[in-house]
Amino acid sequence: MKKPFPKPVGVGANQPSPYGNIHHPLFLLACLFTIIFLGLQSYAQSGNKEQTVFAQAYSFAANDPEKIKVTPKFQLAGDLANIQILLNGDVNNNWMDLDMTLVNDVTGEKHVLTQGVEYYFGSDSDGPWTEGSRVKDVIIPAVEGGTYYLTFQPALANGVTIQNFSLTLNRDVLQWSNFWFAMTFLWLFPCVVWYLKNRYEVNRWLNSQ
């Protein structure tokens, strides 16, 4: 009785790679769509009318009886566009939060949001270190044009008596987050195929020793 041939193990020296025929076309397609997405992003950037609609510095005292502050009214031009609220807080080894409400002065429509900043620094056996940021932003995706004002209530870290900060509102800001998400999704599969192809070639070389 003849014995069956043993099951092949590893990668043969002349064994074709299952990834060889799809590796290069995938990378060419990924490069093509990257160029297309860059063109679309550049077109979007040229159409954005980013403008600062409100900017003001504040100094808030922890014992201030008037906890909720109201900005002067400001105008948002155009139809639907996003709003970026930029918070710049003079925090040093502490934090601050702002509970904010963007209010349409005519319709009463409200957008409620919270943003905070924290910044810590020091040094240890490895040298100086920092953590956090004094500047943070939050974006409201689609806000109709009209007259608005912003109400906000600061929350301060324990022991802080006076906190300086500034608020800046920008209209129609270009966002790169969607672009980078698309790039990650686009290049994920080609990179996985590239990794598998290289692992296959490494195994071929090891089995030829």
Fold topology:
Blueprint: H1 20-47, E1 51-61, E2 69-70, E3 74-76, E4 81-89, E5 94-104, E6 110-124, E7 127-133, E8 135-143, E9 146-156, E10 162-171, H2 177-207
Antiparallel strand pairs: 1-10, 2-9, 3-9, 4-8, 4-10, 5-6, 5-9, 6-7
Helix pairs in contact: 1-2
What is shown here, in short?
By secondary structure, the protein is α+β, with helices and mostly antiparallel strands. It is 28% helix and 42% strand.
Note down, in words, how this protein is organized.
The chain is α+β, with helices and mostly antiparallel strands and 209 residues long. It has two domains: 20-48; 50-173, Jelly Rolls. 28% of the residues lie in helices and 42% in strands. The chain has helices at 20-47, 177-207; strands at 51-61, 69-70, 74-76, 81-89, 94-104, 110-124, 127-133, 135-143, 146-156, 162-171. Strands 2, 3, 5, 6, 7 and 9 form a six-stranded antiparallel beta sheet that branches. A four-stranded antiparallel beta sheet has the order 1-10-4-8, with no helix packed on it. A hairpin with a 2-residue loop joins β6 (110-124) and β7. The protein is flat. The model has no long low-confidence stretch (mean pLDDT 85).
